[in-house]
Fold:
Amino acid sequence: MTQQYRRTGTYVAFHAEGTSNQTESDMKYYRLLQAWNVREDNDFHFVNSHDKTSAVRDTSQKETLRKALVTRLLRSKNMILIIGDTTRLDNDWIPFEIAYAVDNCGIPIIAAYTEYDRILNPRGLQSLWPAALKARIENNTANVIHIPFKQAPLIDAVDQFNVNNLPKGGGLGIYSIETYQEWGL
Structure:
């Protein structure tokens, strides 16, 4: 019998590039999300799924880490996938997290690109996609909204998209140019 969890969290996946140095990997974007989340003078707030289970470190046994990630994903309503220049190179945890999120949990992915102000043609960015994401977009099993790593789109996507309200467009969901203009992007 599968244990049922309340899905209130947002799972954040990023490529740490095998380092704990925050300036050398996409971990800096994860830390920025955490900083935005604790600031009281902005509208960016989310329940971080990584805070809902005990901490695991890179030195933890692989199976222990896998179990913790599964628990976090099962408690998540959506996933922010931070996509930078090296995300596609991760051949360990990113593929696992994407596969489990889509195949087992059915949660939507908020693909947040670090070097862009607007995302209007996600297919044009597929060279940045991890293989696990690309495969699930191509076989129409992933529900993805593609956005820039900016506060306004992140606030809207985290608040709007979840297991009960999936992005339109299947794996190639986007916001309109008018929406970006409203955000000042």
Observations:
- Residues 144 and 172 are 6 Å apart (CA to CA).
- The chain has a mean pLDDT of 85.
- The first strand starts at residue 9 and ends at 13.
